Amino acid sequence: xxxxxxxxxxxxxxxxxxxxxxxxxxxxxxxxxxxxxxxxxxxxxxxxxxxxxxxxxxxxxxxxxxxxxxxxxxxxxxxxxxxxxxxxxxxxxxxxxxxxxxxxxxxxxxxxxxxxxxxxxxxxxxxxxxxxxxxxxxxxxxxxxxxxxxxxxxxxxxxxxxxxxxxxxxxxxxxxxxxxxxxxxxxxxxxxxxxxxxxxxxxxxxxxxxxxxxxxxxxxxxxxxxxxxxxxxxxxxxxxxxxxxxxxxxxxxxxxxxxxxxxxxxxxxxxxxxxxxxxxxxxxxxxxxxxxxxxxxxxxxxxxxxxxxxxxxxxx
Length: 316
Known about the structure:
Layout: H1 8-16, H2 19-88, H3 91-99, E1 128-131, E2 134-140, E3 152-156, H4 167-172, E4 175-178, E5 183-186, H5 192-199, H6 218-222, E6 234-237, H7 238-255, E7 263-264, H8 265-268, H9 270-281, E8 290-293, E9 311-314
Antiparallel strand pairs: 1-2, 3-9, 4-5, 6-8, 7-9
Helix pairs in contact: 7-9
């Protein structure tokens, strides 16, 4: 039986001449050539994205280092400023603030009837002030000050001392009768040396009437031992008024250079200072002309007086 299967030569020839195979082979090469550029472009895009991400990470790291260094530098500057600020505060104030967290100054005051009565509470939160004569005493700024002077806050209002009605109690609360300021004021707002100098001044001459028929010793005036009480009208030459202005201005100059001392209403009030300048520079002022003085109108803690007893402390 003769087989119809082609010989090997014929089979190979058919394969070699098969157009379908040739067509498939040609299409595969074309597709390979078109795929290669696309793959190359994708690789480049991925490489660019990786480079951008790397640059962003480096930038973030550099920014973090700069921010960290800036914070260290600012902390250093703040430390230097804090050291400078501490150097301005007396050592006693620092040690007292560390030893005492909160201390409220309280005092038994007689109830004044004046319509402008202000609170005597020292519980208001604010800056703490240390009394240089009593290291254990802290006072706080309180509301109600009548002088909005920059750099100063009210520490004791005019009712705190209450010296005209309660002299012993006023002394126990740290108040002083300062004749150069016309009344009672907290010791932080007076100067012992100026007060001692004032008490050595010659007698100006004091009378209970404008006709000079009822004299009264100056020592009694300084002690507020006046017939009829501290609201009695007294008469003295204008020389007293001039000396009062001199001492008040000296007190202002002296205490404005000290951080642990304050100023009363009279030396701190700009209006009163202008008034004193006018008194001292007025060529027509006659030192012998009588001037009226009412001690109770200056300050000290009884109804019907002015604001001379207020004590203001510098804000540190």
